[in-house]
TrEMBL record:
It is found in: Cell membrane. InterPro entries: ABC_transp_permease, LivM-like. The lineage of its organism: Bacteria, Bacillati, Bacillota, Bacilli, Bacillales. It is a multi-pass membrane protein. This is Branched-chain amino acid ABC transporter permease. The keyword Transferase does not apply. Keywords: Cell membrane, Membrane, Transmembrane, Transmembrane helix. It comes from Peribacillus butanolivorans. The chain crosses the membrane at residues 7-23, 29-49, 56-76, 82-104, 111-127, 161-179, 209-234, 246-271, 283-306. The keyword Repeat does not apply. Coiled coil: none annotated.
């Protein structure tokens, strides 16, 4: 009976994640991991659309900001209950994503990427200039922490870590169910050949729009969790630099893989925190690193490990056949 199986490894990682606040007892590391988990949720949204449907959206930084500002405005200016505001923020993001998706998905390839990049920048400008609603460069201050659920409170770093971890695990489970379902296979069929998918009767526009809205839901959820965790937001969270950070996490971790968004986000966030002493020179490390990964491992770290396992499995039968032939010759 094998102990080192994929299932046991995943269970061990989940147990380690839940035990980390007890083992580590360091608020700085908890803060860093909580932020990493929030970014990872947003990256899973990009991965669903770009990795499995084949449409590279550069507007998800804007949808992240919409989720954050929706929660901030509903709680700070409208005085809404946090959990209702969280649901409302996700619904608002999805509604805006639906409208934008109807237009954006009529374009393809680089035209789609350029259009969504423009949309993301327009969202940033609206947040920055509409001072009557968003407070402009002053930002929103005093965003409340998550409300209590019975006796459970979220006023400590550990409790907020557990809350975000539960949301992250839920997102990963949802992603797993989508990928291994008929819907997921439909998305991959569109990615591989949209024309062929149409000829076999797949409604490509309907499926692409569904994937787009789901991806904006994940981005809005991440933005809302970010706002409640940081307690202050400004227009910078909708800037294009945030979008390219999210895209970098995805490319390094592995686009079109289930574990890639989490691997890439954790690796780069931890690495960037440890290289803070280099300040603006950090990109001298990240730039060549990203270039080398894209050249040699186009599917990222998770994709490279998966490909290595496939090659290893393919070699085993040939080794067994050679052993059998040797024994026959000796006999």
């Amino acid at each position: 009976m094998k102990i080192l199986t994929k299932r046991n490894g995943i269970i061990a990682l989940i147990i380690l994640a839940f035990l980390f606040p007890i083992i580590g007892q360091n608020d700085y590391y908890l803060h860093m991991l909580t932020l990493s988990f929030i970014w990872a949720i947003a990256v899973y949204g990009i991965n669903l659309l770009s990795g499995y449907t084949g449409y590279l959206s550069l507007a998800h930084g804007g949808f992240f900001a919409i989720g954050a500002y929706s929660l901030g405005l509903l709680t700070v200016k409208s005085g809404m209950n946090f959990w209702l505001a969280l649901v409302g923020a996700c619904l608002i993001t999805c509604a805006i994503g639906f409208v934008i998706g109807l237009i954006a998905l009529r374009t393809k390839e680089h035209f789609f990427a350029i259009y969504t990049l423009c949309v993301g920048y327009i969202i940033y400008l609206v947040i920055d200039k509409w001072e009557g609603l968003t407070e402009g460069v002053r930002g929103l201050i005093g965003i409340p922490a998550p409300g209590n659920i019975g006796p459970i409170t979220f006023d400590t770093a550990a409790s907020q870590y557990y809350l975000v971890l539960v949301f992250l695990l839920a997102v990963i489970i949802v992603m797993y169910r989508i990928i291994h379902s008929l819907t997921g296979r439909t998305y991959m069929a569109i990615r591989n050949s949209e024309d062929l998918a149409q000829t076999i009767g797949i409604s490509t526009m309907k499926n692409k729009l569904t994937a787009f809205v789901l991806s904006t839901f994940f981005a809005g959820l991440a933005g809302a969790l970010y706002a409640s965790f940081i307690r202050f937001i400004g227009p910078d969270i909708g800037s294009t630099s945030i979008m390219f950070d999210l895209l970098m996490y995805l490319l390094v971790g592995g686009i079109g893989t289930l574990s890639g968004p989490l691997v890439g986000t954790l690796l780069l966030v931890i690495l960037s925190q440890n290289l803070q002493f280099l300040q603006e020179y950090r990109m001298l490390i990240f730039g060549p690193l990203l270039t080398l990964i894209i050249i040699f491992y186009p599917r990222g770290i998770a994709g490279a490990i998966f490909d290595w396992k496939i090659k290893r499995k393919d070699k085993k039968p040939s080794v067994l056949r050679n052993d059998v032939s040797i024994k026959v010759e000796e006999g």
